[in-house]
Amino acid sequence: MKYFSLNNREHTSNFENAVVRGLAPDKGLYFPDEIKKLPASFFQSIENLDKTEISFEVIKAYVGDEIPDSALINIIEETIDFEFPVVEVEENISTLELFHGPTLAFKDVGARFMAGSLGHFIKKGNLGKITVLVATSGDTGGAVANGFLGVEGIDVVILYPKGKVSKIQEKQLTTLEDNITALEVDGTFDDCQTMVKKAFLDSDITDKRKLTSANSINVARWLPQMFYYFFAYKQLKWKDRKLVFSVPSGNFGNICAGLLARKMGLPIDRFVASNNANNTVTDYLETAKYKPKPSVQTISNAMDVGDPSNFVRVLKIFRNEHSALKEHFSAYSFDDLQTKKAMKDVYEKTGYVMDPHGAVGYLGLQKFMESNPGYYGAFLETAHPVKFLDTVEEAINDKLAIPDAIQGLMNKQKKSLQINHYKDLKEFLLN
Predict the structure, then answer these.
(1) pLDDT tens-digit profile of 316-329?
(2) Fewer CB near the terminus (10 Å): N or C of the chain?
């Protein structure tokens, strides 16, 4: 499989180089040269396939022969060795729970697959030491730290906005040490992401360090997110209804993976991008004009992104046509008060506890289905509610049980370095 830069189709790469580089030399995002449809027989018999068999068929074309099948299967098995249950919440609405991995967030899938792929390439080649440089608005940092912990030949540097991630999220990315360094930035997620992008363009740094990104701009982080849409379809196929998936959306890698899965033939009729107050894409759907804006802090912090990197991939899937996008894609935005009310109402009505991101997803699904009653809908629960303990307990007016793994984490000592400006990041990377 070849990949090309969305800034310049003439620049192409294979899978390995796309993973190692993260971004194309012209700083464009890589996109697969071809999207191959899966045969109808695959979907007809999907209920007879296990998670590994499904994932292998989905990802094989994008990896090609650059990772041998046996090694690819091992990477897949290590990536998805937990459950992805679809849980019915109320009539015609289920949730796809993506928080059963080691860091209790959906990003475990992409982070583990990328760590396995990059680790494979380091072992087989002469890549030397690689620095994974990543900005996080919450869950990415913990997932990347856990996925890459102890991987030989890789250093991980994580930038996160001071005071703008939950206590548990912060502990997950600041307590591992080994080859993981957390940099606490006095600013927003957008400031962190800007610093990371600037570092990739800085020849003083790139001449000395080989950098790659573990945000969802990296194809090895982005593509495996398709897996759980196929797992969900396997569980919902028997309903024999038109399906709509509502995806809490920040940097838009997750929903973009779902749209790619649909392009491969997965029978999901509609996707809803459910946004918090960071409503750049919601505005685009209404106006056909893309106007990025500074991010706004909310209780669903992993979605606090004002200029989502992956939206350019979403547009590419729909040939950059606004009208084509609107045929199968909706977007809605909700504020914190609406989010808290949804958490409270669903808990009181059904006993189900949603995290703030899942609650935004629920609201988006509910809004879509008000005018589209013929659908069966699923919203994504992207993180365990305990990761947002104070917010959730306040919203539902009840206490949550704390998993043992989280109890142990909270007793660990936070270790991070404070930085304020890009020059601080540059000095760290050079020294």
Answers:
(1) 999 999 999 999 99
(2) C
**Are the CB atoms for 379 and 97 separated by under 8 Å?**
no
Kindly report which listed range (75-84, 372-381, 396-405) carries the lowest average pLDDT score.
Answer: 396-405
Residue 107 annotated among the catalytic residues of the structure = yes
pLDDT score of 127 more than 90: no
In the three-class reduction of DSSP (H, G, I as helix; E, B as strand; rest coil), residue 105 is classed as: strand
Spans of all domains in the chain:
83-104+221-401
Average pLDDT over residues 82-99: 97
Q: For 165, how many CA atoms within 13 A lie in the half-sphere containing its CB?
A: 30
Task: Please state which of the four CATH numbers 3.10.20.90, 1.20.1300.10, 1.10.10.10, 3.40.50.1100 is assigned to the domain occupying 83-104+221-401.
Answer: 3.40.50.1100
Q: CA 340 to CA 344: how far, in whole Å?
A: 6
Compute the average pLDDT of residues 299-320. Answer: 94
pLDDT digits (tens, 9 = 90+) for 186-225: 998 889 989 998 998 899 999 999 999 888 899 999 999 9
CB 122 within 8 A of CB 401: no
Secondary structure (DSSP) of 30-82 = EEES--PPPPHHHHHTGGGS-HHHHHHHHHHHHHTTSS-HHHHHHHHHHHS-S
Percent of the chain having pLDDT more than 90? Answer: 85
pLDDT in tens, 13-24: 999 999 999 989
Q: Give Cβ neighbours of residue 60 (< 8 Å, ≥ 6 apart).
A: 69, 72
Report DSSP letters for 306-371, one per residue.
SS-TTHHHHHHHTTT-HHHHHHHEEEEE--HHHHHHHHHHHHHHH-PPPPHHHHHHHHHHHHHHHS
Q: Which of 36, 60, 107, 293 is the catalytic position? A: 107
Residue 235 tokens read as 């569980």
Q: 277 vs 135, 208, 391, 416, CA distance in Å? A: 20, 40, 17, 29
Across 386-391, average pLDDT: 93
